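User: Please predict the structure of the protein below. I'd like the answer in structure-token form so I can feed it into my own downstream comparison script.

Assistant: Understood. Taking the following sequence of 591 residues as input:
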Amino acid sequence: MAEIPYHLPRPRPARLLAGLRRRLRESELWLIVLAVGVGTVAGVLAVLQARIAHYLQMWFYGIDFEEHLSATARIQPVDMLWLPLGGLVLGLFTWLVRRRRKAPLVDVVEANALHGGAVPLSDSAIVCAQTLISNGVGGSVGLEAAYAQAGGAAAAAAGRRLRLRRHDMRTLVGAGAGAAIGAAFGAPLTGAFYAFEIVIGSYTPSAIAPVAAASLASVLAAQALGGIPYVIQVQALRAPDIAAYLLYAGLGLICALAGVAIMRLTARVDQAARAMPLPSFLRPAVGGLILAGLALWSPQTLSAGHGALHLDLAMDASIGFLAMVFVLKTLASATALGFGFRGGLFFASLFLGSLLGQIYARLIGYIPMATELSAQNAALVGMGALAVSIVGGPLTMSFLVLEATRDFGVAAATLAATLIASTVVRERFGYSFSTWRLHLRGETIRSARDVGWIRSLTAGRMMRQDIPSFSATGTVAEFRHRFPLGSRSRVILADDAGRYAGIVLTPSAFADGVNPEDPIARLASCRDATLKPEQNIEAVMRAFEAAETDDLAVVDDEGHVLGTLGEAYVTRRYASELERQQLVLYGETKD
């Protein structure tokens, strides 16, 4: 008698997890519930990291809990030793990490653009630790990179556990990263649009509810924990008129040029630091020495600049002082990032933008018959415009100003300036700071828009492998005998070593005037135009356009033929995948 197989029931947690996975695939409401949980975790992580960094600054520099390092009137010279010492610790930590792994660390923007939202937990832990060290010792960088990385990593971990589809995974990672930024600023709309513009790369109807829910949950969680957000306490004085809008448009243009200059300066400093005849682990220490010198000149160069922003607005500083701080802070931020300190330029760009806006308003005041600009309003507009030039996200920065001031007139002026700044940077430069750093290491992405599917469609995956081959030393007669007219449309030629020697269209061997005794190699085309198996579909399409042919061979590094690919098939495949991505984008289908 045959034994009846007996299957043990799955444990209750496994059954619950399987049921949750099924519901997440069937209903968007469950994705919103998951996003609320992710947003809560992101808010908690943002508060935790902010407190760790602030406690480090309190310990190193002797400031009180309510104080900000960049607003300190004077720093003791002996305390400046923490910058090079912290740089040395950071350099040694980074050196140890690089010894254990060769691949670059993946941030949330790169993960969403190339890897379908897969953010490795180990990478995120390393990025957060590097950022906390950098900011904790007073480096001129912000914690926003750590906030976004932690929130995105928490979302990615939940998404992997629940086996979310690619689109849902990218949405959840964007929601987690944006929620962390929203918690840091106490601004849910800012966090939501940070997710859309910076991390997801597009506005999608299916993502609106999860992202908004996550951002609201993170702000509430941060408030419940007593987290002190980066509140921008600036009061708009009066709504701008039409003439002021035009002047603010000019400020947007100036901020665009300044943003591009700051990003290029950072890249130049990075190149100079790498060219120094020093071990890599010593570079942050050298950068710390430079930062210490700048901080002795002005403590406002320390940390992200939150305290200094409010201090400069309250003290009604002169143009000369504002210009000096702008130059010093720019040099400090470029030095910190160029010499290996880890962090973001989000809040630093807000601080620099406020300085630039105040300088602009005061200079306008010297022009006869010109409309008088409020220095505080100009500071707000400058904040948004310069931040957009460096970080990106016109609506993100406009909503930040709106949530800070509750003034729709100034927010509208900020939106106008940010759109001008964004357009100029996109046309003249093409990158935000996050994608510019990826560009410097060889990547081509310009936003977080999902291009991973393009890279997954390679020539090796799309090629046909059933195309016959023929010896390049054979004659036309031999070719006709082996491949009668109508049997094959094209044949690959190979030399004696089996390497690719061209493609022969079968009808060309039966054309009038062709001598049967001629070598078949005379009829070969595309001898030098080939594809590599790792080329993605966009590179393949460019290769077809350059070769002006219908078919190309896919060969390995030694020149051996792996298969063939037709332009018509590639075009159809690209159109099909693009249509599928559009359907997913608008929530009309799932991955």
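That's the full token string. The longest helix spans residues 28-61.
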